[in-house]
Design a protein that fits this description.
The chain is mainly alpha-helical. The protein has 15 helices and 2 strands. It is globular.
């Protein structure tokens, strides 16, 4: 029994980042439907992002202050400027563009475009040498093919509809969409979502560098939420002149802000920071394709949206691409651990001068 328990504990520790990132995608998928319902109810996207970030900062502040009081690095002007840029890219301007795009399109389409973050992040990581590609290495080829396959699945979901699959039961939740506005503003919404995805890809990469100089996830998350709330408040006041838009009643608008602030801007960002430090930014974005699958399933079974055959085919292709990405990344991680152990063993046995005449290893992917 003890061996089984020990084996289960080791297994959970090994796949803890995978489980956490899967839960992150589920949390994001739920967020889209709550946010869409609140926007249809009259909530302004600018006001939503402002309240959400401020609430997240207030909730996270006690955790950051007490849990990292002795380990938190000293704040410098350079670090604060990094926090400012991070907040702009990840929690203020990008969120405003993203949710306005959601208001103009629909959750399934938005989550399909969201998957481009993984590919954009992968390309940027290769350019910055965070990820090393060896064309003769099967693991590197698996990551490239997995990225392309995932994008292909997203293109299928977006461009190919096919026959409609009938709903097996009435929708559990009714969300009234303005189809006329969606079709009129579709192009604008698409461009806004794409711009936000590029910003998020840069945000993931930049967070990996910032964490090396400021290894305090709670504090970094709190700073981003507070600064992001201040940023969104400034341009929300400039854009939104109707004072009544800032009044929130006890309805879906309030619950949307609470969920978005505590779960999406707070807990989820902290989990992503932890996974970024453990596995790297590309690993975090690997799980984005799951969002399309989860959203399509919830749209069909819970909200009652029409599900087309193309969505199912694209979802299966996305899962295949995700598996290839994870396989390539995990195999590289194991290779890194083996080579690190060898290097450490050589360092501990450095009495023989001839052992220092090694040619070294090739560039190891992170």
């Amino acid at each position: 029994m003890e061996q089984k328990g020990c084996g289960l504990g080791v297994l959970c520790c090994k796949f803890k980042p995978h489980l956490l990132m899967t839960l992150v995608q589920l949390a994001y998928s739920t967020l889209y439907f709550i946010a869409e319902a609140s926007f249809n109810h009259g909530l302004n996207p600018y006001v939503y992002v402002t309240y959400r970030n401020i609430l997240a900062g207030l909730v996270l502040f006690p955790f950051a202050y007490f849990l990292e009081r002795k380990t938190r690095p000293k704040l410098t002007l350079a670090l604060f400027l990094e926090f400012f840029v991070l907040s702009l890219l990840g929690l203020s301007l990008s969120l405003v563009m993203y949710f306005i795009g959601l208001n103009y399109t629909n959750p399934t389409f938005v989550t399909a475009l969201y998957n481009t973050i993984a590919s954009i992040t992968f390309v940027i990581a290769v350019v910055l040498r965070i990820e090393v590609i060896k064309l003769r290495n099967p693991r590197s080829i698996a990551k490239i093919v997995g990225t392309l396959v995932s994008l292909g699945g997203v293109m299928i979901v977006t461009l190919y509809r096919g026959p409609i699959i009938r709903n097996v039961w009435p929708p559990l939740i009714h969300i009234n969409n303005n189809d006329d506005q969606i079709h009129e503003e579709w192009l604008k919404g698409s461009l806004l979502v794409i711009a936000s995805c590029v910003a998020w890809a840069i945000w993931y990469i930049m967070q990996a560098y910032t964490l090396k100089r400021y290894p305090a996830q709670w504090s970094l998350t709190t700073w981003q939420c507070i600064v992001g709330g201040a940023q969104s408040a400034v341009y929300s006041v400039i854009v939104e002149h109707d004072k009544s838009a800032w009044i929130i009643g006890f309805n879906i608008e309030l619950w949307s802000i609470i969920y978005g602030g505590i779960v999406a801007s707070g807990l989820v960002v902290y989990i992503q920071l932890w996974c970024t430090e453990e596995k790297g930014p590309v690993f975090v974005t690997m799980f984005n394709p799951l969002l399309t699958v989860i959203t399509a399933v919830l749209s069909y079974f819970v909200v009652g949206d029409r599900l087309h055959l193309g969505c199912l085919v694209g979802a299966m292709v996305v899962v295949i691409g995700l598996y290839l990405l994870i396989w390539g990344k995990e195999e590289e991680q194991e290779a890194d651990d083996i080579n690190s152990s060898k290097e450490q063993f050589k360092g501990n046995n450095s009495d023989d001068p001839q052992k220092h005449n090694t040619t070294g290893t090739d560039g190891l992917p992170l």
